[in-house]
Amino acid sequence: MRRSHLLTAAAALACALAPVAVYTAGAASEPGEAPAAPGPAAAPPAAPPAPGARKVIVDADMGELNDDAATLFMLAKDRGVHVLGVTTVSGNTWVEAGTAYSLRQLELIGRGDVPVVPGAGEPLFAWRQSRLPGQDALYGKSPYGGAFDTKRPPSYLKLPKPPYGGYPKARPRGGAAADFIVDQVRRHPGQVTVFAIGPATNLALAVRTHPEIVPMIKEVVYMGGAFDEPGNTTPAAEFNWWFDPESAKIALRTPFRRQTIVPNEAAMKVLYTKARYDRIVAGPQTPIKKMFKDLHGPEFARNPRYTTPVWDSLTAAVFLDPGVIKRAEERYVDVDATEGPNYGRSMGYATREFAAPRNPAGTRKATIVFEVDQERFWNLYVDRMTR
Ligand SMILES: [Ca+2]
């Protein structure tokens, strides 16, 4: 429910499009500032991942029980998956808020063992946010600006409102998200799948500063783009790649072994409804079920016809059960990073017409998932949310 989430707002430290960029890690810990955290008790520690579990990093613009959180739960509740860490990036939320929400929700599900590493607080392009008013005036105001719509908090312990259940007890891991990605890929060459389910800023920084890791990454799975349909943030652009088009362009043009994209074409058809909420809350009493009742219950009580896509959650499903994919296509992919009405537009060049070397210079192939099996998806989603 990325679109319905409250966020926070804006200081402008950003980086130029340089191979070695400086960025704000943002979430310095300030001991003693966290208010006492009454609220739901954390679950007991969960069982460790099974031997041979597939290794993933979840790079997210985390909210509270939003689509990023659901993705994390789907992966973290699966013993066949080893979540090496959550790296946070500004997008739906400012990185400070996303860091607090990641830490807190991991505690709530008994996965406080998973490190959370704050990453880029601003998109790569230095003037991204300060140019928004001009772009809005020329091309129309986006109905949803994510973090850009709110004031940036000074720390993950000083949000406008404490996270659900209170501020986390755990601290974020030191260092920066991009360095964490680099380090983990080096430790586990050929084994790590990166979920890029927010703006791709951390991933772009990682591959630009340490290109040697590129062939060592097993796969990148993105939520992003709207290839054959209008965008949902501007008529041209989907939110994640609109927020930081330069990073998305860098990431997509990186020669990863394999990249898979779940765009809006797949995501916008898969709607979370009261009937699906009811299936989850009918399940066993767990911290996740309590979160659903507390955070989503009031919305459905107000409006039983409320629906929303669950965007990022489809990436977890595609990874956990590739059989959920009904229609996918391989295309050369790119993002328009030219300022103008098409800023952030994703483009997919059909491999028939644009077979190499006719593809645009520097573009790489990706598998784009255009449709998923809805029943199979919801069965998986409900199963993971009720564990
Ligand atoms: Ca996201």
TrEMBL record:
A single GO cellular-component term on record: cytosol
MF GO annotations: purine nucleosidase activity
Keywords, ordered alphabetically: Glycosidase, Hydrolase, Signal
GO biological process: purine nucleoside catabolic process
Region annotated Disordered, chain positions: 29-52
Biased composition (Pro residues): 37-51
Domain of life: Bacteria
Domain Inosine/uridine-preferring nucleoside hydrolase: 56-379
Gene3D superfamilies in UniProt: Ribonucleoside hydrolase-like
A Pfam family that the UniProt record links to this protein: IU_nuc_hydro
InterPro entries: Inosine/uridine_hydrolase_dom, IUNH, Ribo_hydro-like
Keyword Protease attached: no
Cleaved signal peptide residues: 1-27
Record's keyword annotation contains Hydrolase: yes
Name recorded for this polypeptide: Inosine-uridine nucleoside N-ribohydrolase
Protein species of origin: Actinomadura namibiensis
